[in-house]
Specification:
Layout: E1 2-5, H1 9-22, H2 41-48, E2 54-55, E3 61-64
Antiparallel strand pairs: 1-3, 2-3
């Protein structure tokens, strides 16, 4: 298993700027809760799934098998 940034640097730059603006909360989410703090709960759960391969919700991270 490998977790890495998206290969598209424009996406990474935009999301990282959004994270700075929101204080570390996913800029794609309207609510700022513990579950939406980057790395969000949704993606942490997907990481635990050995069958999952793909991007997190905001496309900042990619999990490869």
């Amino acid at each position: 298993m490998e977790i890495r940034y998206n290969d598209d640097t424009k996406v990474v730059d935009a999301i990282r700027a959004g994270l700075k603006r929101t204080g570390g909360y996913c800029p794609c989410r309207l609510q700022h809760t513990e579950d939406t703090m980057c790395m969000c709960k949704e993606f942490r759960e997907q990481i635990c799934d050995p069958a999952f391969e793909g991007f997190c919700h905001c496309r900042l991270y990619y999990k490869a098998k």
